[in-house]
Specification:
The complex is a heterodimer of chains A (about 170) and B (about 180). Chain A is elongated, with a radius of gyration of 36 Å. Chain A starts with a helix and ends in a 10-residue tail after the last helix. The model of chain A has no long low-confidence stretch (mean pLDDT about 70). Chain A contains 8 helices and no strands. Chain A is an all-alpha fold and about 170 residues long. Chain B has 2 domains: about 100 residues, RNA polymerase sigma factor, region 2, helix turn helix motif (Rna Polymerase Sigma Factor, Chain: A, Orthogonal Bundle); about 70 residues, Orthogonal Bundle (Arc Repressor Mutant, subunit A), CATH 1.10.10.10. Chain B is built from 9 helices and no strands. In chain B, helix 1 packs across helix 2, helix 3 packs across helix 4 and helix 4 crosses helix 5. Chain B is globular, with a radius of gyration of 18 Å. Chain B starts with a helix and ends with a helix. The model of chain B has no long low-confidence stretch (mean pLDDT about 90). Classes of the chains: A mainly alpha (about 170), B mainly alpha (about 180). Chains A and B meet through helix 2, helix 3 and helix 8 of A and helix 2, helix 3, helix 4, helix 6 and helix 9 of B.
């Protein structure tokens, strides 16, 4: 009687008996499979690996560093002289001359806007575009297929791990 | 036994990171090597991916937020690196990833770092008939003997899903071998 009480106190994991058959079949099937895959490594490979990783890591770190062609001091001298020359020219220049839009480079206009000299709101920019242009912009975006996106990521992103959450 | 948390702290510190990295490489180099080798099959590619994996770990350790185990995070990086490698190879040759693996299996016979026989080549062919994720589950469970709980963290799949995936994989592989070994 006492013995039966003890047995009653033992428990098995949930679904153990339901899954038992599957586990057993798996074990029997596994017996047929080879126990190793026949791969080997060059002699002493793992002993040299630490050194090889260190060497590769160091060479990558060196590649990443930019060595300046001109020293910072020389650059400062050259920049000061250039600024002075520019200042002299701009003072001497005929201030009364009026430029046409064609004479001004687009990059100068971009810089002018980027420097905050003109404040444009989103709706003010949008009225400069026709409906057709706006539709083209939207439809071009929707034409990006999953495949194109995948191709772009595979070709242009070296580190796909960067897209994963840590 | 090296405490993982202490190792992570050392890896993230400026003074100790190099020494800690050396410990990390020694601890995991063989396990990660065999994990990668089972995915890409030849030694040269494995060596390249393994080195890149460790360099990535070294460079990104400050991004490791310790939400998972370091070991899990490293396996995930090694797995992604290996699959990205195969994908790039497939894109370059304009063939599927399965075809790339088939070519790699065909090359095994002349590989000086392969000493298996026809059964082992058939075994690799059988594994290659499985979907990519099922291949990972099979290799990691059958050869590396990970627990389902560990696998669940590395592959971000439920334990139940992994168990049935492994069960199906074993069934498919044995059926393939039985069918093809007599031919």
């Amino acid at each position: 009687m006492k013995r039966r009480e003890n047995i009653d106190k033992f428990k098995v994991p949930t679904n153990y008996f339901d899954e038992f058959e599957n586990h057993l079949l798996n074990k029997i099937n596994e017996e047929v499979l080879p126990k190793n895959i026949g791969f080997k490594t060059p002699t002493g490979y793992f002993n040299k690996l630490d050194f090889n990783i260190k060497r590769k890591n160091n060479s990558r770190l060196k590649e990443g560093k930019l060595i300046p062609v001109v020293s910072k001091k020389t650059f400062m001298y050259a920049a000061s002289i250039a600024a002075m020359v520019l200042l002299v020219f701009s003072v001497l220049k005929d201030a009364t001359r009026v430029y046409t839009l064609e004479e001004i480079e687009i990059s100068s206009i971009e810089n002018f806007i980027n420097e905050g000299n003109i404040q444009l709101k989103q709706h003010e920019i949008s009225i400069l575009f026709t409906d057709e242009i706006l539709n083209n912009i939207t439809s071009n975006q929707s034409r990006l297929s999953g495949n194109q996106l995948e191709n772009y990521l595979l070709e242009n992103i070296n580190d796909l791990n960067a897209l994963l959450p840590y | 036994m090296i405490d993982e948390k202490e190792l992570v702290i050392a890896l993230k510190s400026q003074n100790e990171c190099e020494r800690a990295f050396q410990i990390l490489v020694n601890l995991y180099k063989e396990r990660l090597y065999w994990h990668i080798r089972k995915i890409v099959l030849n030694h040269e590619d494995t060596d390249d991916i393994l080195q890149n994996t460790f360099i990535k770990i070294y460079k990104n350790i400050h991004k490791f937020e310790e939400k998972s185990k370091l070991y899990t995070w490293m396996y995930r990086i090694a797995t992604n690196e290996s699959i990205t490698f195969l994908n790039k190879k497939a894109k370059k040759k304009n063939i599927t990833i399965e075809e790339v693996k088939n070519q790699l299996i065909e090359n095994l016979e002349s590989d000086i770092y392969f000493e298996g026989n026809q059964i082992q080549i058939l075994f690799q062919k059988a594994i290659n008939t499985l979907p990519q994720k099922q291949q990972l589950v099979f290799n990691m469970k059958y050869f590396e003997d990970h627990t389902y709980e560990n696998l669940s963290e590395i592959l971000e799949t439920s334990v139940g899903g992994l168990k049935s995936s492994y069960h199906i994989a074993v069934k498919k592989i044995t059926a393939y071998i039985k069918l093809n070994e007599t031919i």
